[in-house]
Design goal:
The structure holds two protein chains of two kinds.
Chain A: E1 14-23, E2 26-32, H1 36-42, E3 49-50, E4 57-58, E5 71-74, E6 81-85, E7 95-98, H2 113-116, H3 125-129, H4 134-148, E8 163-175, H5 179-190, E9 195-198, E10 214-215, E11 218-219, H6 220-232, E12 237-240, E13 243-249, E14 253-258, E15 273-285, E16 289-291, E17 304-306, H7 307-315, E18 324-329, H8 332-343, E19 347-353, E20 367-370, E21 374-378, E22 385-388, E23 393-395, E24 398-402, E25 405-407, E26 420-422, E27 427-429, E28 438-440, H9 450-467, E29 501-503, E30 508-509, H10 510-518, H11 524-531, H12 544-555, H13 559-562, H14 576-580, E31 592-593, H15 597-602, E32 606-610, E33 613-618, H16 627-640, E34 643-646, E35 651-656, H17 660-667, E36 680-686, E37 692-702, E38 705-710, H18 715-729, E39 736-739, E40 744-750, H19 754-759, E41 778-783, E42 787-792, E43 801-807, H20 811-822, E44 828-829, H21 832-842, E45 888-895, E46 907-910, E47 922-930, E48 935-943, E49 952-957, E50 962-969, H22 979-982
Parallel strand pairs in A: 1-7, 8-9, 8-15, 9-12, 15-28, 17-24, 18-19, 18-24, 19-20, 31-33, 34-44
Antiparallel strand pairs in A: 1-2, 3-4, 5-6, 5-7, 10-11, 13-14, 14-15, 16-25, 21-22, 22-23, 26-27, 29-30, 32-33, 34-40, 35-38, 35-39, 36-37, 37-38, 40-43, 41-42, 42-43, 45-48, 45-50, 46-49, 47-48, 49-50
Chain B: E1 2-5, E2 9-12, E3 17-21, H1 35-44, E4 52-58, E5 66-72, E6 78-83, H2 84-90
Antiparallel strand pairs in B: 1-2, 3-4, 4-5, 5-6
Classes of the chains: A alpha+beta, B alpha+beta.
């Protein structure tokens, strides 16, 4: 049985495809081609929500994306999307919609009590009411206000839908597929240009679908359909229905949201929405215009609608919003609602036009009141009666209101464009300067008649294309009519006795605007912020001009003098999910896997994010229940026998050229000119301001060939810096750089048995004995019978150690070979934790020490800065403040009570000094449990640390109430003389 | 934003990393008598023009060229894009 009492005949719906849906649990019916709003209208549903602040009953106001009232939660469970405009949501079979912002049933919302409290809830009420006592704001007022005011609620669950992003290029982007847009796209397509035609609606045609105009002798909707069909067949055209171009960005770039799956019961794994970035040579804005209401008493009653929306529902969706409708219009276009309704057999009770003169059309059966206005409405949850300024009352179940049309010029203002006032249509129109490459045609420019839209659409497209060098055909413009849009502005009906709404979404009334004026919030930007006019999901599309016109009236100035607020992207709301696209969860950003990753996974390694990489953190063995057990074992095995660690992630820069040595000399603080071929040297780089930037080793593989390593985290920034130095500072140095971080798999092999292990892997013709390949040696070798490799005798662990590199594709094979070769020594793989423990035991600086505030001096490397040459950072590192005697120095710390575990971040205070900022002497940067020493150790910066060895200071953390005594010690906890690494 | 790379043509600004004022090319002479002052000015003093601004962009996701981009800070209009190396040479920088 049909529930659609208000369904008319005809319309652009598919009656062969009935759909079922639920609204607040009640099962209703509609057809394919309906929006949720039009289906509700067809079912006679008037009450669809409660207002933001006063919880007033609200109905559908519009038939488009400007809708302030009919915001529903659509979908179930985690899929539920709040604040969906019923007027743009396409109906599908099984759709479930719920109204928002009420406690108890929609028809009896207990929060409606707010409406009776309205005298206390006017503009700026919370600034005034909840000022005192201060603590009450956070604890009492705000939670209550947040609960009672507002829109829909999120499901609280992760969004299960997927989203995607894409990039498109075109010669001409046509925004809006109404008459102007279709005429433009048609003309541009025939000229052979690459055209994109985007429209937020699922059906092309814009107002043509809602009106009864004819074009070239055909009904407008048919012309639109035919034109779209012809365009769809052209290869140079991309049609994008359900796509909102929401932002105009620099240099012809546009943002667009395509709703690819919102109209489907199930997207079948495909993205729900796609966010497009469209690169255009030219863009033509054909976004049409939005009708505005007139403010009068109780004009927010369900059943009060925009006249154009009533026409849309009747003509396009064959659904009448009422059975006895009155029309209130200050312009000729509004009269079309009355004629169209009458032509469809809907009773038109009256037309009320505040202008004087004779009726603009003959409406059968309707009373006409010229020079009168609607001053009030009655009815509880829907309109029942209207009262005119003249005192007359009329029984109606729907009131269609038209206050004129506002061009949809938002996108013309996204680069600070300011609209101009056009008195003829009493609206703002786009004004120069427009965004580069953009032009505007049709109603969006203020040319409201159909013929003007068609003519301008074609002309502007042709102009843009000629500009790009296309030959345009100059064919005749489709023929239509030049109907009248004559308007006499009326913003609010002064005879109204009750509150008259300006902004329905934010519950802003004429009284609130007057109050803002009274209290000195005169500028439109202040008005907006004080009253919330024009905020939230609809961005005041139906409210803004009304609000500022009333403010202008109060101030006794003209509307253009009052000005408008600035429009910013997005034109309509864009879900955060769409902006995130696929960059969520572990795909938030790309991460890289080391060459030994698969192998490490097989070993059951625990991984950790390190910069852009996933690295093995430690390798738990059976029976180990705590990470410390694994790490302690990895450290001990390495120090006592041998361990292997994947160090591929360290940045590698291949440096070649006749001036490579000179180049290195200028980017490192220490000298590199005399580094011999086959040798490696530690180097430190400063920023130009004298602060330490990064460190690493550089190996000289040949006369003009070096390989630099950087820290994992700084691989990118250091490379960028080196290129800056090379290209911008010394453009004629003969030096070339290439990042080879991913090109080589590199493993540290460390421990007393490291050499024995490697001798089993390195081909026999290469001598890696202590004499043949001493500490800091490097060379190109082969392994496993001819596989090319590089060997560096460098040590981060402090043990006898090598780093061996092979082309990345051999990395997986090499780790397996190394582990097999090491079996007889009980080799262990070690992860980043053990790596960290061993470097702390050796006092090597890492990220926590190279933290962007410390100098070479602080790091104990002040003497490395060569005074005999220029290098980056050299000059400013000599500033006195950076060279204070009592400056910070990197030293070691151990707890006086060895059972204490140190923590990074603790600050140092001398014994007997108060724990405050004035007595702060430094901080702990890195800590570890040292399995070699059997207690906790730390590195840290403390004032004059190098001269305070043996002193006991306090390490404090006021945040955690910790305060223990620590002893200042040299930072080399293990093998201070460095005998092991030279062994 | 689109940057018209002198070698590669128009590229999206997302491919680039921004550094700052192009005057960073003009690194002072470390042996000048007032080198400390010169370096201070070089590093810390910047004009903040409302209008044309020459700035350094690095094509990090591309060919690794450093570019000098002349951009209007009011309109974002880009009127000139040069290889920083050429600019450096024209300023007399060499080795």
């Amino acid at each position: 049985m049909s529930t659609q009492d208000n369904r008319l005949s005809g319309g652009l719906i598919d009656r062969e495809r009935p759909l079922r849906f639920r609204f607040n649990g009640e099962e209703l019916q509609g057809f394919q081609g309906d929006t949720v709003a039009s289906a509700l209208v067809a079912n006679g549903v008037k009450l669809v929500g409660r207002s933001f602040k006063y919880h007033r009953p609200r109905g559908i106001l519009t038939a488009g994306s400007e809708e302030p009232n009919a915001l529903l939660t659509i979908g179930e469970g985690a899929y539920a999307e709040p604040n969906t405009r019923a007027t743009v949501a396409e109906l599908y079979d099984g759709l479930s919609a719920k109204s928002q912002n009420h406690r108890g049933p929609l028809g009896f919302d207990v929060m409606a009590v707010n409406d009776f409290l309205s005298p206390f809830l006017s503009a700026g009420f919370y600034y005034k009411t909840f000022m005192w006592p201060r603590a009450f704001w956070e604890k009492l007022y705000e939670p209550i206000i947040r609960k009672s005011a507002g829109l829909g609620a999120l499901s609280g669950e992760p969004d299960p839908s997927s989203y995607d992003k894409g990039f498109l290029h075109c010669d001409l982007l046509v925004i809006g597929a109404g008459p102007a847009g279709l005429a433009a796209a048609r003309s541009a397509a025939r000229a052979g240009a690459k055209v994109i035609l985007a429209d937020e609606d699922f059906r092309f045609g814009g107002r043509l679908n809602a009106e009864t105009y004819e074009i070239d002798g055909r009904p407008g909707a048919v012309w639109a359909e035919d034109t779209a069909k012809a365009l769809a067949e052209m290869e140079n055209v991309r049609l994008m229905p359900r796509t909102t171009v929401y932002g105009a960005y620099d240099h012809g770039v546009y943002g667009a949201l395509e709703r690819t799956g919102d109209h489907l019961p199930d997207t079948d794994g495909k993205p729900r929405q796609v966010l497009w970035r469209i690169y255009t040579k030219r863009a033509l804005l054909c976004a049409g215009a939005t009708e505005r209401p007139i403010a009068f008493g109780d004009n927010d009653r369900p059943g009060v609608m925009l006249a154009s929306a009533v026409r849309s529902y009747a003509n396009r969706f064959a659904a009448t919003p009422g059975k006895r409708i009155a029309v209130f219009t200050n312009n000729d276009d509004g009269w079309r609602t009355a004629s169209d309704l009458a032509a469809r057999g809907v009773e038109v009770a009256a037309v009320i036009d505040p202008r004087d003169g004779s009726p603009r059309a003959e409406i059968p059966g309707a009373s006409v009141f010229m020079g009168d206005a609607v001053a009030g409405t009655k009815g509880r949850k829907a309109i029942r009666e209207i009262t005119l300024a003249s005192g007359r009352s009329l029984a109606v179940d729907c009131l269609a209101v038209s206050g004129g049309w506002n061009p949809n010029l938002q996108l013309t203002c996204h680069q600070r464009g300011k609209p101009a006032w056009n008195a003829e249509i009493a609206a703002f129109v786009p004004a120069d300067p427009l965004p580069v490459g953009m032009s505007v045609a049709g109603a969006a420019r203020g040319a409201l008649s159909l013929q003007a839209a068609l003519t301008e659409g074609q002309a502007k497209a042709e102009a843009a294309l000629s500009d790009l060098g296309f030959k345009v055909s100059g064919e005749p413009v489709p023929a239509s009519s030049d109907e009248s849009f004559a308007v006499t502005p009326l913003w609010h009906v002064k005879e109204s006795k009750r509150r008259a709404w300006v902004d329905l979404q934010n519950d802003v009334t004429v009284k609130d605007v007057k109050l803002a004026h009274q209290e000195g919030f005169l500028s439109v930007e202040h008005l907006k912020r004080y009253t919330t006019l024009g905020m939230a999901t609809d961005q005041g599309k139906t409210a803004n001009v009304l609000g500022l016109a009333i403010m202008a009236e109060q101030r006794g100035i003209s509307i253009p003098e009052a000005g408008t607020t600035i429009f910013r992207p997005p034109y309509t709301p864009v879900p955060i999910g769409a902006l995130a696209g696929r960059a969520r969860g572990k795909d938030f950003r790309p991460y890289r896997l080391t060459p030994s990753h698969d192998w490490a996974e097989e070993q059951g390694a625990v991984f950790v994010e390190a910069g852009a990489w996933m690295r093995a953190q430690y390798f738990p063995r059976e029976g180990e229940t705590h990470w410390r057990q694994s790490v302690d074992r990895e450290v001990s095995t390495t120090r006592n026998s041998v361990g292997v660690c994947d160090v591929t992630t360290l940045g590698k820069v291949d440096i070649q050229g006749r001036d490579a040595a000179e180049f290195l000399n200028r980017v490192y603080i220490n000298g590199f000119a005399k580094l011999a071929v086959g040798k490696t040297r530690y180097g430190m780089m400063l920023r130009e301001d004298g602060i330490a930037m990064d460190d690493g080793t550089t190996a000289r593989l040949g006369e003009t060939h070096y390989v630099m390593t950087t820290t994992t985290a700084n691989a990118g920034p250091v490379f960028r810096h080196l290129e800056f130095c090379r290209q911008c500072l010394w453009p004629d140095l003969d030096v070339h750089l290439i990042s080879t971080t991913d090109g080589w798999a590199q493993f540290a092999v460390a421990g007393p048995n490291a050499r024995k292990l490697l001798q089993k892997v390195v081909d026999a013709e290469f001598d890696i004995s202590n004499e043949g390949f001493p500490f800091m040696a490097c060379g190109e070798i082969t392994v496993c019978g001819g596989t090319p490799a590089r060997l560096f005798r460098i040590s981060f662990s402090g043990e006898l150690a090598y780093e061996i590199a092979v082309p990345a594709r051999y990395g997986d094979a090499l780790i397996r070979v190394l582990m097999q070769a090491g079996e007889e020594f009980g080799v262990t793989p070690y992860g980043t934790e053990a790596l960290g423990v061993m470097r702390i035991e050796k006092g090597h600086a890492a990220g926590a020490e190279l933290c962007g505030t410390t100098t070479a001096q602080d790091l104990g490397m002040g003497r490395m800065v060569s005074k005999k040459k220029d290098c980056i950072g050299n000059t400013l590192s000599e500033r006195p403040e950076l060279n204070r005697e009592d400056g910070l120095r990197l030293v070691g710390f151990r707890p006086v009570d060895k059972s204490h575990a140190l923590k990074a971040g603790w600050h140092f205070v001398s014994k007997g000094s108060p724990t405050d900022m004035a007595h702060d002497e430094g901080w702990m940067t890195s800590v570890a449990f040292s399995p070699s020493l059997g207690h906790s150790i730390g590195l840290g910066f403390i004032k004059s640390g190098d001269t305070r060895m043996g002193e006991i200071v306090r390490a404090v953390s006021p945040a955690t109430d910790s305060d223990i005594e620590v002893e200042i010690v040299p930072s080399h906890f293990v093998d201070p003389e460095g005998e092991r690494l030279r062994g | 934003m689109i940057i018209n790379h002198p070698l590669l043509g128009p590229r999206d600004s997302a491919e680039f990393t921004y550094l700052g004022d192009a005057s960073l090319i003009e690194r002072p002479d470390w042996q000048a008598e007032d080198a400390a002052d010169q370096f201070h000015d070089y590093l810390y003093l910047r004009d903040n023009p409302a209008g044309e601004h020459r700035e350094l962009w690095f094509h990090e996701q591309g060919d690794r060229s450093w570019l000098v981009v002349t951009r209007n800070t009011l309109t974002h209009e880009i009127t000139k894009v040069e290889l920083a190396r050429d600019v450096a040479r024209s300023l007399g920088r060499s080795r």
